[in-house]
Amino acid sequence: MSAEHQRPEGEILDETRPTVRHPDLYKVVLLNDDYTTMDFVVEVLETVFLKRPAEAHRIMMLVHTQGRGICGVYPYEIAETKVASVHALARQHGFPLQATLEAE
Ligand code: TYC
């Protein structure tokens, strides 16, 4: 936003308000695979994404049937941390579960 004001001397003052920066939001997308158990995916959705059991089950089935699904939308650093948590937990349990980030 910019406003020009005519000053008495004739010079023009261009006022520019500092831009307010909102944190960019990213979707965390969970991907389907043939090896990760349904129970483990539900557990990840409950613990990492703080979903209640029915919602966790709904998202897991969505990913299972559609190939992918959104677990949540977060500022970049939180989204990155959640993706890292999914991968760390999955590897600890020997599952190939994958999650990715997508710009909102
Ligand atoms: N397709 C898996 C199975 O049949 C379950 C699964 C669901 C895996 C969601 C990953 O993100 C996933 N055991």
Count of extended strands: 5
Helix/strand order: EEEHHEHE
| Biggest β-sheet description | 3 strands, antiparallel
Rg (CA only):
22 Å
Helicity, as a percent range: 25-40%
Helix count equals: 3
Percent range for β-strand residues: 25-35%
Mean pLDDT: 88
Shape: elongated
Low-confidence stretches: 1-7
SSE class: alpha+beta
- Spatially, the strands of the biggest sheet line up as 4-3-5
| Bound molecule types | L-tyrosinamide
| Alpha carbon gap, first and last residue | 24 Å
Account of the 3D structure:
- This protein is α+β, with helices and mostly antiparallel strands.
- The protein has helices at 38-47, 53-66, 76-92, and strands at 2-6, 12-16, 25-31, 68-75, 98-103.
- The protein has a 3-stranded antiparallel sheet with strand order 4-3-5. The protein has a two-stranded antiparallel sheet with strand order 1-2.
- A hairpin with a 5-residue loop joins strand 1 and strand 2.
- The radius of gyration is 22 Å and the shape is elongated.
- It binds L-tyrosinamide.
- L-tyrosinamide is lined by residues 30-34, 36-38, 41, 60, 63-64, 97.
